[in-house]
Amino acid sequence: MIEVLDARPSMTSAIAALRSALADGLDPAADPARAVVPVPSGQFLLMPAFWGDYAGVKVATVAPDNPARGRPRIQGEYLLLDGPTLTPLAVLDGVALTSIRTAAVSAVAVDALAPADASRLVVFGTGPQAASHVEALRAVRPVEEVVVVGRSSAESFAAACGGRVGTPADVASADLVACCTTASSPLFDGSLVADGAVVVAVGSHEPHVREVDSALAGRSAVVVEAVATALREAGDVALAVSDGALAPDALLPLADVVRGSASVPRSGPRLFKSVGMAWEDLVVAATTYQAARGEPR
Questions:
Q1: pTM, two decimal places
Q2: What is each CA distance from 36 to 44, 61, 101, in whole angstroms?
Q3: 135 close to 103: Cβ distance less than 8 angstroms
Q4: CA distances from 61 to 38, 180, 248 (A)
Q5: Among 220, 224, 221, residue whose Cα is nearest residue 274
Q6: When you count CB atoms within 10 A of the terminal residue's CB, does the N or C end of the chain come out lower?
Q7: Burial of residue 66 (number of CB atoms within 10 Å: 0-12, 13-18, 19+)
Q8: Model confidence over 241-292: pLDDT tens digits?
């Protein structure tokens, strides 16, 4: 019988599970390509994956006009399967899963790239991903100052996370920058970002839009979940490559960074561009399922 899991995945357990999976040899490049089907009201997304004793698939929709209707922009469900038999095991809330796993993989990257004392965070956006990123980055670094840059609800969001409202220029003094928006053009001047600072950009999986500019990509160590996926789906990367600011062979896979087999330049900022991949959903879904059943991980 299929279980319906209502439990919200734990951020700390999601971070630990993703880090452990990468360290133990999970290959993000083995993920099947995301299926994106345009429909009149937005997109239909299908994201399957296989890992260890589990398989799974996320079915999600993106409807850009939904917020004006009082409905979520992204909706979906996750079906977790037994790996050897492909028997359905559980259904999880796809939106909650996406919110947690996206921020958790950012935290894994930040933990591998940022100075141990990074304490100043600038977050662009005021939606669920922005909130999840504040939580996740606080889990891996001693974040004391949060600056919020947003088009709406910035004051209430800042109050909720104990921060203040700022402007794009605040990236100049940031240790960490989290870009969690639906922007289609750069949010700030990349030349302002300090050497050693870490920027994470998670807002899009489309090759023609971006949250950070080529100036930042060109002067940064650029880390991605999987190189081929980033070149295909990440506008922040693909547009910088087409501008001549970034060489494809300069991209660093996150797994190599986590395992210590990639050499990260000491100079310049660090940029982690995430498009969100199916392996992340599966690892977090399986971990949540095991925790709900009291099984060892």
A1: 0.94
A2: 6, 9, 20
A3: yes
A4: 10, 18, 30
A5: 224
A6: N
A7: middle
A8: 999 999 999 999 999 999 999 989 989 999 999 999 999 999 999 999 999 9
